[in-house]
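Running this now, will post back.
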Amino acid sequence: MKELIDSFLDYLSVERGLAKNTIIAYRRDLNIYLDFIIGRGRNALSQISKNDITDFMLSAKEKGISPVSISRRLAAIRMFHRFLARERVLKSDPTTLIDSPKLWKKVPDTLSLNEVEALIAQPEVRDFQGARDRAIIETLYATGMRVSEATGLKAADVNLDIGFLRCIGKGNKERVIPLGKKAIHSIKRYLEFARPHFLKNKTSDILFINRSGAKLSRQSVWKLIKQYAKSAKIKKPIKVHTLRHSFATHLLERGADLRSVQEMLGHSNISTTQIYTHIDKERLKKIHKMFHPRP
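Update: finished.
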């Protein structure tokens, strides 16, 4: 059964072009699923029934697993069984009649404009690392990129003359995102002042590098943002996509259309982008409650 998981994941990677992190998550979810199935005495995939899968989901719920995670696990299981049915490993797909758990879409945490300004102001730009960090934060907020996308940016991906950058997102999908004047200024300063210092006599095609001239990790960027948020006295929880969520929210609050925001974020489905319209509605409700004579 483990070999069939490997075949399925190879299919997702090669033919479907799914991102590396998605493949890793699917492998973890499917291994948990098979351990549960084997624990029920099912020694072959053909023995798995709809009830087995339903019980697996109920077991996850009883363990306190979030509905989002359970839904993701079910998505992996569905795709796995469809793959097996299509490859004629199984005669039928037991997931066909299983409904996804009802999800409450959690509104992402965002920063106010003043909090974003305070965060951006924290790095000391006369310092090599500070100049780099300011450029990273400005880029994340200016483009709404995922942190993993920003750390993968190459210097050649950024055109500061016309104010655009080329981003390779999930599934190796490419998109072009505009850059504002402040982000352009910060990136220029980093390129002229800090990056040559980090590189010394080395070469690298990666835009944002560490003090050794190597590519910055996603975790490193998240940690530095958290540190600057702390020094800016921002009390809200800072997560890896907080600036991305703030970017989308602030655009929609100022009248940007949903399709444009979807394109810049790199969402394949507009329903994913629509979560940010809920944030705007919450803001309007607060304003209504504060100022309406009969709230």
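The chain has two domains: 2-86, 113-289. More later if anyone needs it.
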